[in-house]
Write a structure and sequence with these properties.
Distance between the termini: 13 Å
CATH superfamily: Amidase signature (AS) domain
CATH class: Alpha Beta
Strand content: 15-25%
Helix content: 25-40%
CATH topology: Amidase signature (AS) enzymes
Length: 477
Amino acid sequence: MTSLCDMNAMDLRLMIGRKDASPVELVESCIERIETVDGKLNAIVTKSYVRAREEAKNAEKAVLDGDELGLIHGLPVAIKDLEKTAGIRTTWGSLLYSDYVPDADQGVVANIRDEGGIILGKTNTPEFGAGANTRNSLFGATSNPFAPEKTSGGSSGGSAVALATGMVPLASGSDYGGSLRTPASFCGVVGIRPSPGIVALEDRPAGLLPFLVLGPMGRTVDDAYLLLQAQAGVDPRDPFATIPREGLYAPLEAADLGAIRAMITPDLGFAPMLEEYQRIFTARTSLIRHHFSTTIDESPNFADGHNCFEVLRGVHFVADHGSRVLEHRDKLSPNVVDNVDRGLSYSLADVAEAHVQQSRIARDWLQLFKEVDVVICPATSTTPFPHDQWSVTELNGNNMETYMRWLAIAYLPTMALACGVVVPCGLDHMDMPFGIQVLSAQGNDRLVAEVAKALEITLSKNQETMRPLPDLEELVR
């Protein structure tokens, strides 16, 4: 089952510019794929076919007329249902907003449209993005295309599934504690967590908390980076998005790994990790470590990372959802309620201490990159689990202290303000996708993308580490 929709975004964009492919044909190919496989997956929860078809006709006309074309001209894009889309239902996965249709696009969506992207639909997410299992009371669960009874991860699970199955060539995501990186790993696609402010987030509830970022997802590093270029933009409403993005828009080149110093760590020193996943990571990195100029088998200093994450996430949730929980507790998911209740339990002294801890982590992280260029670790701590579970409750027989603790491998870098890329790295011991993270200091977005691209090329040459593909035929039976 190979169609136009299965091609990479970079190739499609070149073909559209050369008039070798039609935006109209591409949109129809994507729509056909959605209608064929999404019945078993539930990735696209709101469709915008009529408008997309009209925009595809306009995009085709622009090509034929010789107009100047945007970065992603004519490419269908799926937008995570946490981002406002003018004229297209935006629900945040919540019963409270089941019929809400915004009048205006969020800034990042406007940027995508300005660069020629065609919004084909909205992708499923847990309510308000709370949790790494894409399920909610409004639309239900999004299934993993490699095993439909299992989770796609979250909170950008719908976007990851849409990409993995060829529903769209590009999709948006967001990331706080791994919301973009976890589903990318669970579904065998690429996710980029940019530095705060690279993609403006003008309506964040607490404007001076930089941990929540918007970012791109694609099937390759090139594709995801192309969408990042389209998403990026300066916006004075976001205090972190006021600096020009020097060098961001040059074509992406693969790094010379022979000039890269890498720290390789199976758990960042503090993240709970399934023992089998540590073994897989060690085996996979043994295949690539000789490509680097230097490899260091150590871990960054993430002491107090669990506490500062929990407390500062609580501040974020109280700011964004405190009044909702107060007025609509019985209509909200347990994850939203848990985060708000946990946040309200902290004292001012707790919050102050968490800020001090996070600042120390971020400074230590910056200091680390005087010795190395990138840190490489697993993208998730465990294999995808049944989506009827809310989260992972234990690893290696040890109970998780909070519903988020199993995500420490993703949220600890958030506390350091790291930028990073998740790259597929074959299958795990359960024949589910396995991913690795390439991380670096804030502002090194191009470096991590270049290293990730080089690793992607290397991994693609080995049957054990190449990007896995779901069996689409199984999804239509």
